[in-house]
Amino acid sequence: MKDYTFVKSKKKNKKYDAFSKDGEYITSFGDKRYAQYRDKIGEYSHLNHNNKKRKDNYYSRFGKDAKKDTAKYFSHKFLW
């Protein structure tokens, strides 16, 4: 997390905006309308479900591989 800064997104239905350590915008990620396994950033921890089966289903739909600095990467690393 030290290489990135996260702020609550102002974009419709997005949870977070990710910025590089230099302050450059990277991407928005997460959807406010849905729960996640565990929010490691903490702003949406009230939506944590901590259900291993749901986590496994998420990865079976989206796969576990994600290119660095993509919305999928940040979702996997900080929400799932």
Keywords:
2 helices, globular, alpha+beta, single chain, 80 residues, three-stranded antiparallel β-sheet
Structure write-up:
The protein is globular and about 35 Å long. It starts with a strand and ends with a helix. The protein is α+β, with helices and mostly antiparallel strands and about 80 residues long. The protein has one domain (about 5-80). The protein has helices at about 50-60, 70-80; strands at about 5-10, 15-20, 25-30.
What's the structural domain tally? 1
Order of helices and strands: EEEHH
Uncertain ranges: none
Please tally the helical runs, counting DSSP H or I stretches of 4 or more residues.
2
Main sheet makeup: 3 strands, antiparallel
Structural class given helices, strands, pairing? alpha+beta
Please count the beta strands (DSSP E, at least 2 residues each): 3
User: What's the helical proportion of residues?
Assistant: 10-25%
Global mean pLDDT = 96
In spatial order, strands of the major sheet run 1-2-3
Roughly how many Å apart are the termini?
A: 15 Å
> What is Rg?
12 Å
Strand content: 15-25%
Inertia-based shape: globular
